[in-house]
Amino acid sequence: MTDASAQFEGRGRPSLRVQDARTRRRNAAEKRFRAYGLVAIGVGILALFVLLASIFGNGSSAFFQTKIQLQVPLEEKALDKSGTRDPEAMKKVTTVGYGRVLKAALADLIAREGIEIDGLSKRDIDSFLSKEAPAQLRNHVLANPDLIGTTIAFEVMTNGRIDGYFKGRVSLDSAELDSNVSPAQLHLADALKDRGLLGTGFNLDFLTAPDASDQRPEAAGLGVAIIGSAYMMIVVLCLALPIGVAASIYLEEFARKNWLTDLIEVNIANLAAVPSIVFGILGLAIFINFAGLPQSAPIVGGLVLTLMTLPTIIISTRAALRAVPPSIKDAALGIGASKTQAVFHHVLPLAAPGILTGTIIGLAQALGETAPLLLIGMVAFVREYPGAPVEGFFDPASALPVQVYNWTQRADPAFVERASGAIIVLLAFLVVMNTIAIVLRRRYERRW
Amino acid sequence: MSVPLLLLIVLALGLAGFFAGRMRALSVAGGDLRNLHSLPGFYGWSVAILASAPAILVMVIWIAVQPIVIDRSVSAMIPETAISDGSTRDLVMADVRRIAEGLDQAVAAGALTPDGASNIRAGLSDVRGRLAEVGVALGANVSSESLRAAQSYRSGLAAGRLGMTAVVLALALGGLGYGLARITPRFRARNTVELAVRMGLILCSMIAIATTVGIVLSMVFETVNFFGQYPWQDFFFGIEWSPNFRGNSSLGVLPLLWGTMYVSAIALSVAVPVGLFSAIYLSEYAGPKFRAVVKPAIEVLAGIPTIVYGLFALITVGPLLRDYIAQPLGLGDSGSSVMTAGLVMGVMIIPFVSSLSDDIINAVPQSLRDGSLALGATNSETIRQVILPAALPGIVGAVLLAASRAIGETMIVVLGAGAAARMSLNPFEAMTTMTVKIVSQLTGDTDFAAPETLVAFALGLTLFVITLALNIVALWIVRTYREQYE
Question: What does the pLDDT look like over A368-393, one tens digit per residue?
């Protein structure tokens, strides 16, 4: 310490280089405050990360499925007694008949490979395969009747528990306690896997197959849900975009300020904040009970989501219209265009990218909406694909987020995997839509 | 004629009207455009609109009104005696509709001639058997009353369709003819068309009002119905919720309100500090690069559908809280709890709080900051003692908006909070909210005459009123605050 500072200290005045206690305290408080901010941001980001990690950790395995390669002899006397190869006659053989064929093929395989496992009962072999497998074989054969009499190589899904074994959901210990699977079956699965007869591969059926019952989670797919969601998005797009744009043009370009436009504005602001479940009640009371539209139909879902999406589209369209400088409209008016012409020929095309971006974001919101759809009966168990548009809009269907909810309500833990997988699909659609919106904005957005 | 075909014909007439109108305009002008008031296209449009718009409007109204009229007249045909015990008029009517559809299918399949379908008598032939042949299964044997009702239902439908076709086509053709006759060089086609366009725009913007009216009406009617069957005092002040579909239910809203408030309070106590501090850091401390990365990342949280949060609560947060906190502390062993739903919902509304507060903090004038810093205050002192007080009303508004979000949120509580209606202080117990009960009372088999179903509408209206009030107050606060610095 220099003499000079000692001199100051002696007089009780702090050095400029050494902070006094109060300054230190204030600086520490400053640092703490900044740290709080960083921690808060960290919490937010961490929550996002954990959320995504949990969903992807649980769901990515839904895209893979354990299947077994079987040599299936399709004997005429079992599957086509008439010998005519007429699909109508062959329909008399039900899935039970095909199930027998598959079980025999599996027992045959085990015998041929010389696999011997203690305690492997006939029932274990019978329940090794998915309950859905006979139906798949039957459909395959009915589509190609000429296969009768030959032996075909057929990939068959295993039971959901066996599938869970390879995904870590089922273990030998848990199998002891489980009435749906026995340890012997798991040993059999291991033995088959060692011989390369059983493997886990990409599961396209998850994206295309319809939902399946509580007993066969391995067969449950998103086909109907994806079609239903797509139909609803078409309805929303066809209704919300024109109506929303028309309403925005009126409010932004034509409306005089009076009680009516005030009322409309207040309504739009409020609708944007009404809980989504209330729209579900509206849909149930007006569209189903009053107008008599069918339950579970994409048209009703689409109408409800349209009403929910309208405020979003109107708000973003108005912002886009407002962003077009008035000089462009003034120029059009100046050379003799009418107000309508100026708006439709000049302002609207220039606002189009902004409108499109807002629309896509509105659609993305609508795609993820669940609660209102529960009330209009979209939770129903639907296995039939809806028909082609426009009639298909009135057929029962499911929707992606509702399918997720549906699967969470089932008892089998395998449906947790399915539900998370469905969310990955849903998020993938959302990411694509939002990316398109961002790209559009980057590419076409003009600063005036 | 089927509706799509009719619609197509009307649109085709409109299209034809466009070209005809355009050509007629050119011919009345003698080939010299300068003689016309408007561009030829406008004459075309004026005819097209006149030909198609009224026709389509009438068609829509007809489709909406016809079923009501037919139902009423057919239902009046069924005598009181034909409705058996345990059945209702609605059920008989549903039967009648099924039979009518079955007759249609039978005619289409060739099992019946059109004449046969309208003359078939229940006593003389086995209607049920013959309908079963074409794949229409009927629950009970067909009584002669309902068969006769079905036949008049069919003839009503046929007459209605014929009438609609005639009226709509007449309107379209009439509009086309009138539109064409109207065209003279002095006819102000542009003004007419633009007026029609403006009408269309106004109609579209009215949909916002119509939606609100629809929401309110759909709930008010059923709520009034509900209070006719269940005393309102018991609903608003009842502390027990135990719906029982055999009747005699207790439907007190207080346990649900308690659950809703508890979950929302936990959600806000997560979201407000986190969101507020993030907003402060982002607007006051962060550099542009950091901000450009972090702000969108936090806003992603707002773009994730609520069902994703719900699943997250169900499969991750719930079991985690149960195994590591609730069970060791002996607070309960339920995976779904107020805490689970509240925490996850808190994460969901972080971005609402943070982006709104961010906007509001940014709106505080720079001069206030500069003044405070010039007096020697540190950054944090400036924020705490100058910026936050100045932004406080706006932040309160933001928090209220977030609260209304939390109260109306459904999927997270459906999957995370449980279904047991109870009033307890233990946050690790399962409780339930109004939104959960709306879902559970309105999904599955519902009987719209029972108070157990109708209560959902009363709950919905209560929810609507609460969120509306919160939103109005919040918007009012935000707006008043914004004006302060403008």
Answer: 999 999 998 888 888 888 888 878 88
Q: What is the pLDDT of residues A261-316, one digit of tens each?
A: 888 888 888 888 899 999 999 999 888 888 878 888 899 999 999 999 999 999 99
pLDDT tens digits, residue range B269-295? Answer: 999 999 999 999 999 999 999 999 998
The answer to whether A137 faces chain B, any CB pair under 8 Å, is no
- Residue among A402, A377, A394, A369 nearest B446 (CA): A377
Listed in sequence order, the residues at least 6 apart from B371 whose beta carbon sits closer than 8 Å to its beta carbon are B386
Kindly state whether residue A215 falls inside one of the protein's structural domains: no
Task: Give the C-alpha separation, B221 to B457, whole Å.
Answer: 9
A218 in a structural domain: no
Domain-located, residue A434: yes
Please check whether residue B206 touches A, CB under 8 A.
Answer: yes
Measured between CA atoms, the residue of chain A closest to residue B274 is A40
Cα A242 from Cα B388, distance rounded (Å) = 43
| B404 Cβ under 8 Å from any chain A Cβ | yes
User: How far from the centroid of its chain's Cα atoms is residue A27's Cα?
Assistant: 49
Checking if the pLDDT of A3 tops 60, the result is: no
Q: How far is A83 from chain B (nearest CA, A)?
A: 28
pLDDT tens string B461-480: 999 999 999 988 888 887 77
Put simply, the chain A residues between 304 and 323 with a CB less than 8 A from any chain B CB are: 307, 310-311, 314
| Contact pairs from chain A to chain B, CB under 8 Å | 253
Instruction: Name residue, tokens 């009371």.
Output: A285
B407/A368 touch (CB, cutoff 8 Å), yes or no: no
Whether residues A229 and A242 fall in one domain = yes
Domain that holds residue A82: 64-205
Q: Which residues of A144-164 are buried (b: 16+ CB within 10 A; e: fewer)?
A: ebebbeeebebebbbbbbbbb
Query: Is residue A1 pLDDT above 50, yes or no?
Result: no
A260/chain B closest Cα distance in angstroms: 9
Q: pLDDT higher for B138 or B311?
A: B311
Do A431 and A325 fall within a single domain? yes
Tell me the shortest Cα–Cα distance from B450 to chain A, in angstroms.
Answer: 15
Check A33 against B380: CB less than 8 A apart.
yes
pLDDT band at B375 (very low <50, low <70, confident <90, very high): very high
- Could you give the number of structural domains in chain A? 3
A42 inside 8 A of chain B by CB: no
ipTM: 0.89
CATH domain B241-484 topology: MetI-like fold (1.10.3720)
Q: What is d(CA B89, CA B6) in angstroms, rounded to the nearest whole number?
A: 33
pLDDT at B34: 84
